[in-house]
Every structure is written in C-alpha cells, then in structure tokens.
Design brief:
The complex is a heterodimer of chains A (225) and B (249). Chain A is elongated. With 225 residues, chain A is mainly α. Chain A has one domain. In chain A, the strands form two sheets. Chain A has a three-stranded antiparallel sheet, with helices on one face. A two-stranded antiparallel ribbon of chain A has the order 1-2. In chain A, helix 2 runs antiparallel to helix 4, helix 3 crosses helix 6 and helix 6 packs antiparallel against helix 7. Chain B folds into three domains: 35 residues, SH3 type barrels; 149 residues, no CATH class; 32 residues. Chain B has a two-stranded antiparallel sheet. In chain B, helix 2 packs across helix 3. Chain B starts with a strand and ends with a helix. About 12% of the residues of chain B have low confidence. The chains are: A mainly alpha (225), B mainly alpha (249).
Chain lengths: 225, 249
C-alpha cells in the first residue's frame, strides 16, 4: 500500500468516530466544528467592531436620543426641568443640564453611558450562537435569534435609561455622584446579566448546550486517545 | 460475569450488554460502535513497514515535531511578519491619522497575536484543524472584503462606469465627467473620514489606557463575570439532565 493511501486511511479512521449527540428535553443536539470557530473568533471581533462603530460620529443620533429620553423621564417623574444641550460639533457629547442643582448639574452622555460595550458584547455573542444540525432542535432558529436579539437590546436599553434617570435624580437630591454612580453600575450589571441569561436560556439554549458539546467532544477525543 | 454483561472501557464496571451507554459512567460502550476502533486499525498495521513509503516523504519536516521553544518562536515570528505587512499596507494605503508607525504596529501586534494564537491553538487538534482553518479563512476573507476590496472597487469601477456611458453631445459628456468626478471625490472623502475616525478612536482609547480612566457607566467585567458564572450553572444543569437521559436510555 502506498504511503498516501495509508495516510488517507488513517485520516478516515480518525474521523470515523461518531460525533456525540446530546439529548435534552426530548430534543437532540449536534453541532459542527466550524460553528464553534465562528463563535470563538467571530464574537470578540464583531464586538470590537460594533463598539468602535458606535463611537463614530454617524451614530451621534443614538447619544441624542438617549439624552432626550433621560431628560423626558426626569421631567415626567421628578419634575426637574432638565434640558438637553446638543452641540453642532459632533465631537462633543450631548449634555443633560438640570437647573437649581446642588452640584454642577450638567452631565455628558458618553459612549460608556449608553452601554455601548454591553450592547457590543451581547450582539457579538447572540449573532454567532451555533444552531443544531438536528432538524427538530433547529426549528425556528433564526426567528428565535431575532427575538432574543430584539428583547435583549431593548431590555438593556430601558435598564440603562432608568439607571441614568435614577443616578441623576439621586445626585440632584444630594447623594455624591461617585457613590451613587458606583452603586448603580454594580446593580445594573447584576440585573443586566441576569436578564440576558434568562432570555438566552428561554429562547436560545443552544449557546449553553454548544459549550457543553465542546467539553463532550474534548472528553471523547481524550478517551479515543 | 454473565453473557449478557460487558465491561465498560471507561469505568471498568460491569454493565448490561443490551445498553448503548454505560449504566455507571454514561460513556458509549465500544461493542456498539458502528466503526472499527482506531486501536484495532493501529494494531493491524505493520509499524516497521517503510518499503512502501516513497523516498521523498522520508525525513520530511513536520511542524508538530518541533519543540515548544521553537513553536513559541515561530508563533511570534509569524505574528510579527503579518503585523509588519498589515501595518505597511495601512500606513501607506490609507494614511491613517496616527503619528507614529510604532503605535500602529503595537496595536496590530496585539490583534494578530490573538488571531494567530486562536488559529494555532484550535488547529493543534488534528480533527479540528480543517474546520478551524476554514473558519479563520472565511472570517479573514469577510474582513478583507469589507475593509479593502469593496471600497477600492467602488472608487475605481463606479466612476469608470459612469464616465464610459456614451453621450451624444459635448455638454452631456462634460456632465457625465462631472458626475463621475463628484462620485469619486465623495467616496474618497467618505472612506478617508471613516478611517480617520477609526484611527482617532484607537488613538483616544490607547491614550486613555494610560490616563485617568473614567469609570464606565455599566460595569462590563461584573456583567461578563456574572454572565459566565450563571452560564456555568446552566451548563452543569444540562450536564446532569443529559447524563440522566443517557442512563435511562
């Protein structure tokens, strides 16, 4: 037998181990290696890309919209007569101004204030979640992905708006900015993470199952060796 | 040991022969594998049979046989070479508003270190190599397509298409030329501004890394940490459920 044929045979034998199939809630799951590569490499790259994209001047409208909505809720709930200052030069972030403030009373809405980094991480992960190769568990995958994406983005956006509303209100009431800022950012991170995980578990459990699948593949490979 | 029992190769305990998976550890029982095992194939082959191997294949260099030190060195050399080429293309191709070549080189070095490291790490497993390389190639291809090829194509092809349309009068020809010039200028300015902004963002974030950093509004590390912790809990729950299913089957 020629060397090349032997190599081919070895390769075939190596690939011939059946891929594991996971059974969960009367559904079977099976993933391809290529999808894992997309998830591992694509997610961080896309997250970085989205984050820097949100920093571009063409996305200034997002900062404007967020500032206007924060100001609206401040006036609606707490009657603070706040105003939004939008600069013609888009290098300066929009500012929310609250009159009769015990401290400075003006707050710039920056990239981190609109939770751009959280949106980037979330979108990056959701878009690259692998789909199962089994037909039953693959059903409505695209629709479930779109639904998860919309619910997560809207949920985090609303959470962030109310975080800033309460932050500015408590600061207006005399609580030091650093104190309330740090407390609220921890609280919002906890609520945000819980929310995203619950949404993913309900509509896109493929993320967690696929990670478990990688461990199954690794353990199978170890056993075969 | 009765006839209807078999020893599990993983946990070495007796289990029912009729089961596909071990009752104790849940691993696949070997008699039910539809393919011959690798071990059997290995034992059938004569390890000393070198006569059928062509002479040009003997003593051929294999990267997997290198020692760890050389592998690490090779990894950094590859990163540096890729980085050097990319930095050169970007600096002379797009005129990024960065003051020094060094800064761009360092930035790209970190990026390529992650990418090449991932490819290297993923491709280390032999059955994973094919998929890993395909995936990486696809992602590189998409980035290349979006970042370089499409803008270049639009700049060079579109004005040419507009200009090449035949016009009956000199006034219309002039109009066509003006349209093509306007498109070309607008696209050039747009692409330049996009890259300038990306460059500015990179520069600002690079400078901020060494300055007094503003406390972020929505703590990202806590968010990610909690996300990972909760994910591990869910994965463990799935693990128990899947194992239970296997034992029941």
């Amino acid at each position: 037998m020629l060397y090349d044929e032997k190599m081919k045979e070895n390769q075939y034998n190596h690939y011939s181990h059946p891929r594991p199939t996971l059974q969960l809630n009367e559904k079977t799951y099976k993933f391809s290696n290529l999808q894992f590569v997309y998830l591992i490499i694509g997610s961080p790259l896309l997250s970085i890309f989205i984050y820097y994209f949100l920093r571009l001047q063409i996305n200034y409208w997002i900062y404007e919209l967020t500032s206007i909505q924060i100001s609206f809720f401040l006036n609606l709930f707490f009657n603070l007569n706040s105003e939004v200052i939008i600069y013609a030069d888009h290098n300066t972030f929009p500012t929310i101004y609250i009159p009769n403030h015990p401290f400075e009373g003006s707050y710039a809405i920056t990239t981190n204030c609109i939770a751009a980094h959280i949106f980037s991480i979330m979108i990056g992960i959701i878009l690259f979640i692998p789909s199962s190769q089994e037909s039953l568990s693959k059903r409505n995958f695209i629709w479930r992905k779109i639904k998860t994406l919309i619910i997560s983005v809207v949920g985090i956006y609303i959470l962030n708006i109310f975080r800033i509303v309460f932050l500015l209100y408590f600061n207006f009431k005399g609580i030091p900015f650093e104190f309330i800022h740090e407390s609220l950012f921890f609280l919002s991170a906890v609520i945000g993470a819980l929310f995203v995980v619950i949404v993913l578990k309900n509509w896109l459990p493929e993320l967690f199952i696929s990670i478990y699948y990688i461990f199954c593949l690794a353990s199978q490979k170890r056993k075969n060796q | 040991m009765s006839d209807d029992e078999v020893i599990c190769s993983s946990c070495r305990k007796l289990t029912k022969k009729s089961h596909k998976y071990c009752m104790h550890c849940g691993s696949l029982l070997t008699p039910y594998s539809p393919f011959p095992s690798q071990e059997t194939q290995e034992s059938l082959r004569d390890p000393f049979d070198t006569t059928s191997i062509p002479s040009d294949k003997l003593g051929k260099f294999h990267i997997s046989e290198l020692s760890t030190g050389y592998k690490v060195l090779a990894f950094f050399i590859i990163v540096a070479v890729v980085d050097l080429v990319a930095s050169f293309i970007f600096v002379f191709g797009y005129h990024l508003p960065l003051n020094t070549y060094f800064m761009l080189f360092v930035g790209f070095f970190i990026l390529f270190m992650i990418i090449v490291g991932l490819i290297w790490g993923v491709a280390a497993g032999s059955d994973f190599a094919n998929a890993a390389l395909k995936g990486c190639a696809a992602i590189f291809g998409i980035i290349l397509l979006l970042a370089i090829i499409i803008p270049i194509y639009i700049i060079y092809a579109l004005p040419g298409i507009v200009g090449s349309l035949s016009f009956s009068s000199p006034a219309l020809e002039e109009l066509g030329q003006r349209i093509s010039d306007a498109i070309s200028n607008a696209l050039n300015n747009f692409i330049e501004s996009i890259f300038r902004q990306i460059g500015d963002s990179i520069k600002t974030s690079w400078e901020n890394a060494f300055a007094d950093v503003e406390v972020p509004g929505f703590e990202p590390f806590l968010f990610l940490g909690l996300f990972i912790s909760l994910s591990i809990f869910i994965i463990y729950k799935y693990h128990l459920a899947i194992k239970k299913n296997r034992i029941n089957n």
